[in-house]
Design goal:
It holds the Pfam family Pribosyltran. Strand 4, helix 6 and strand 5 form a beta-alpha-beta unit. The protein has six helices and five strands. By secondary structure, the protein is of the alpha/beta class.
Length: 142
C-alpha cells in the first residue's frame, strides 16, 4: 500500500495525497517542538520534474514549520530508488548547508522514505561537520 501511495504521490504528481497522513505527522512531530525541522531537499532536476517537494508538501499540510537548511550540490543528485543497498551506502556526499552562518543546535531531519538510511546519513554528516550538536531523523515510511 505504501509503495503505491508514494508512487502516486511522488512520481505521478498526485499532490492531494499529502493530506492522508497529516494528523499522524502532527502527532509524531509534536515531541520535537524544541528542534528545528529540516526537510530533505530535492535536486533542481527532481523539483522541476515533479513540480513539488514531497516532504515539504506533507509538512505544510500538517501545518509544521520548517527551515530549508540543506541543498543539493549541483543540479541533480543520484536517484536512490534505482540503486542497490550497496550502491546507496557508497553514494558520495551531495548535500551542502544552504547559506546559513549560524545553525540551530538541534535538528530533526525529515524524509519521506527510509530504505537504507544513506540519504539521512549524508545529511547528518554535513550538518555535524558544521557544528550541529543533536540531529534526530523522522521518515514517514520504511
Amino acid at each position: 500500500m505504501m509503495k503505491q501511495y508514494f508512487s502516486s504521490y511522488k512520481f505521478q504528481g498526485d499532490y492531494l495525497l499529502r493530506k492522508i497522513f497529516s494528523n499522524e505527522i502532527k502527532r509524531a512531530l509534536a515531541d520535537y517542538k524544541s528542534y528545528t525541522i529540516v526537510p530533505i531537499p530535492l535536486s533542481e532536476e527532481s523539483l522541476k520534474k515533479r513540480k513539488f517537494n514531497q516532504v515539504t508538501g506533507f509538512l505544510e499540510d500538517a501545518s509544521i514549520s520548517y527551515q530549508r537548511l540543506l541543498e543539493v550540490q549541483g543540479k541533480s543528485k543520484p536517484t536512490q530508488s534505482n540503486k542497490t543497498r550497496k550502491e546507496r551506502m557508497q553514494t558520495k556526499q551531495f548535500f551542502q548547508v544552504a547559506n546559513k552562518e549560524i545553525l540551530p543546535e538541534r535538528i530533526l531531519l525529515v524524509d519521506d522514505i527510509y530504505t537504507t538510511g544513506a540519504t539521512l546519513l549524508l545529511a547528518r554528516q554535513v550538518l555535524y561537520e558544521k557544528g550541529v550538536k543533536t540531529i534526530k531523523t523522522f521518515s514517514l515510511a520504511r
